[in-house]
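# nightly structure sweep
# worker-07 picked up a monomer target from the shared queue
# config: single-sequence mode, recycle default, output format = structure tokens
# input follows
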Amino acid sequence: MRIVKEANERKNEILDAAAALFAQKGFDHTSTSEIMEAVGIAKGTLYHHFKSKEAIMDAIIERQSERMLAAARKTAEDRSIPVPERMLRVVMALKLEGAQGEGGRDMIEHLHKPQNALMHQKSKQIIMKEVPPILAIVLQDGIEQGLFDSPYPLECMEMSVAYLNTLLDDGIIELTEEERRGRIQAFIFHLERLLGVEQGQFGFIEKMFEGGE
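# output follows
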């Protein structure tokens, strides 16, 4: 007897199988036939939900972005966690490169391909719209506790995210490893002054970027 599943359930099965294969074999070395075999579906079923392998990757990126944003928001609102640690946890939750279970590195490479410019732009728009308000939650708590000093918590996070979202995007600016490290150090230097904290207090940010490489 043929098992009929809800559209969302079937789509998520396809995405789960594809993400596992992309992480294991890489995007370019995974065929749609292998995805169909892993899920146990016919070609017509796959193409009913997704027009191409690229569309599957786009959907994986969107789904992973939603999950990361939800996790980051939940952490930002958890006031049982000290502000500095909460800020670090939020930023780490937002690192797409760390999504190894979803084929994180291939996601980045996929977004940087010229034919995926629209999806790349969409992902950056999501980051600029959703990430600063999440970070501002933690920053506002820090301001109220006297840890930071800024009358513009949201705008401060918008400037920070805009800078990093551009500078650390290899598809926009090509930097040597030394140049990249220097830019991150400069960012930390100015962020500490922007928020009125002592020099070196945000040193963990540089270590975080080093750990993500």
